[in-house]
Each structure stands twice: as structure tokens, then as C-alpha cells.
Design brief:
Strand content: under 5%
Order of helices and strands: HHHHHHHHH
Helix content: over 70%
Number of helices: 9
Number of strands: 0
Low-confidence stretches: 149-156
Mean pLDDT: 86
Radius of gyration: 17 Å
Length: 156
Amino acid sequence: CATPVAMAVAVEVLKRVARRCPCGPVPAVLGFWLTSIACLLLMVHVKDWRLLVVLHLLRTALANAKEPIARAILADFIPSSRRGRWNAVHSLTGMTWTGSAFLGGILCDRYGYGKTFVITAGLYLLSALLWLPLIKLVPREEDAAKGDVSAKAKGA
């Protein structure tokens, strides 16, 4: 019950932060994502189960709050003729996420939760780095409303 509520709150907070961010929504998304990675790494060292629960809720909420904005960016900057392909890629990543639970179980059995969290944090960090080019491509909401979208973003 707490996870969906935490996620809903995080989505709303991220929407407001993204609207106010002077560099557009991507830095706000990255800030939430990087904070979720920090929570994951903290979970490696925390021994108190109550703090672990709080960190887990926070990490889950912050990491998943980006999905509505990611979908909006996809819809805004991918020509409609190519959206099907990109949605298929997005669905494929969802399936690989499910399959990664199997791999995570194997890693937990072999190395323990701590190392698995560190490996996961490293993969999330690599994924977050792939968003960096979007900072230049995705305009602020106000600029997009004025039609001040970069030529690169229009041709995506």
C-alpha cells in the first residue's frame, strides 16, 4: 500500500520540479534518478530494518517517478510514424527488467544483497548517463509552448 502512494507523490513532486527547472525536465528527472541510486547504495550499509524500509520506498518512488515524463518526451519528440518502434523498445526494456529479477536472484545467492545492489546501482548510473544528451534536446515547457524547440529535437 505504501509503495503506490509514495510513487504517486513522487510523480507529482517531479512534475512540479520539472516545470520549474530552468534547464527543462531532463535535469529534474536525472536528479530524482541519481537520488534513487544514492538510496540504493545506502541500503548496502544500513542495518536498521526500519531505515531500510524508508530507503526502499524512497528509492522505488524516485526511480519510477520518471516514467510519465519519459513517456511525454517520447510522445513529444518522436515523429508519430516512428512511435510504434520506440514504444516497442520501451516494452522490450520492461520485459528485460522482469528477466533481470532472475539474474538478480542468482547474484544474490552467489554474492549477497549488498553486491547485487552495487551492481544494480552501476547499471542504473550507466542508464542515467544515456539521458545526458536529452538536456540539450528537450526544451523547458515554456520554451516548447512558445514554439522555441531546437531543430535537433524537431528532427528526432
